[in-house]
Amino acid sequence: MDRANVSGNRIKEARKRANLDQVELAVALEVEYQVKITQSDISEIERGIRGVKDYELDYISRILNVDPTWLLRGNNNEI
């Protein structure tokens, strides 16, 4: 199966480093940016099943305090 996104693993890593669970990330997206993404959506994004819209990736990066380019490409630098 082809992956629907390339950032899922890094989103999961950054979310865990931020000490947020999937529900907390989903709530933060809705409260801070009025973006409705469910816990199930977050799970599917992290597993590469669901794609991520550009604005979703931007907001996720803001909440997780990481560079959106890192979420897309990764690198050897620390988050």
TrEMBL record:
InterPro entries in the record: Cro/C1-type_HTH, Lambda_DNA-bd_dom_sf
CDD domains: HTH_XRE (cd00093)
Limits of the HTH cro/C1-type domain: 11-71
Origin superkingdom: Bacteria
SMART domains: HTH_XRE (SM00530)
Xref: Pfam families: HTH_19 (PF12844)
The protein, known as: Helix-turn-helix transcriptional regulator
Organism: Mesobacillus maritimus
